[in-house]
Amino acid sequence: MKSIQGIGLKNVQDVYNGPEGDLWELIMGEQIHIGGFASSMALAEKAGIEAGSKGIDLCCCSGAGMRFLVRFRSVAEMTGVDAAEKVVERGRKRCTEEGLADRIRFFLEDVTASGLPDAEADFVWGEDAWCYVEDKTRLISEAVRMVKPGGLIAFTDWVEGPAGLGEEEADRLLTFMKFPNVQDIEGYKALLEQSGCEVLVAEDTGQFAPHVDLYLGMLNMQLTYDALKIIGFDTDMMNAIGGEMVFMKGLAYSGKIAQGRFVARKL
């Protein structure tokens, strides 16, 4: 696992309470994760998320993943936890507008200490957001604590790829993305097993690199004005963001960063 000093929860809150979070939503849509709807459906199918089940989404952002699960997997009830007030309020508003507020609730809390009850959920869910959490051991432990015996932990996340990140590459990526660290697939498998789970799926989705191409294409070919508006028409910032995304694309095509998909069952 690669780590960097000086980045923590406050930095992540600043991203998603500010214009940077809006920029990511512009590029990636409400489902701010690689692969959007198709990625969510693949994760749900591999995990066997059942109709009528109850789940918890850790780092839920504005709740797009929860709305997906309620609409397309007939999940009975979802609880989302996120530490950024802006996206939580946005999520509550969207759920009300879509008539889903009676089945989806939000908590503004640190996901490593949510205060939610033990062993009540059928599954815990996450999509490309646990990379923002500094203490991944505690995060996995918290996820496992909240599911029933036999319950599922199902998530995708940005992970270090098989080629490995050099120290300078890791520092640059983590600084740009505001990640305190980035785990790898074997590391997540070990954390899940140490927390009392059987790992059912631990794989590279293969989706990362082509989606960075897509996001760069959208910024350069269609959404330039929209993106500039979000960041106050700061062209220097726009160029800097584009440069970091090109760098990230190179890492992805070199096998140094990837999107991992994980499903585990609590024993």
Summarize the structure.
Helices cover 46% and strands 22% of the residues.
Q: Evaluate the radius of gyration.
A: 18 Å
Record field, number of beta strands: 9
Write out the CATH superfamily name: Vaccinia Virus protein VP39
Q: Which strands sit side by side, in order, in the main sheet?
A: 4-3-2-5-6-9-8
- Structural class, judged by helices and strands? alpha/beta
CATH architecture: 3-Layer(aba) Sandwich
Net shape = globular
Helix content class: 40-55%
The level 1 CATH classification is Alpha Beta
**Uncertain residue segments:** none
- CATH topology-level fold name: Rossmann fold
Q: Total domains, how many?
A: 1
Q: What string, H for helix and E for strand, traces the elements in order?
A: EHHHEHEHEEHEHEHEHHHE
User: In percent terms, what proportion of residues is strand?
Assistant: 15-25%
> pLDDT average, as an integer?
97
Number of helices: 11
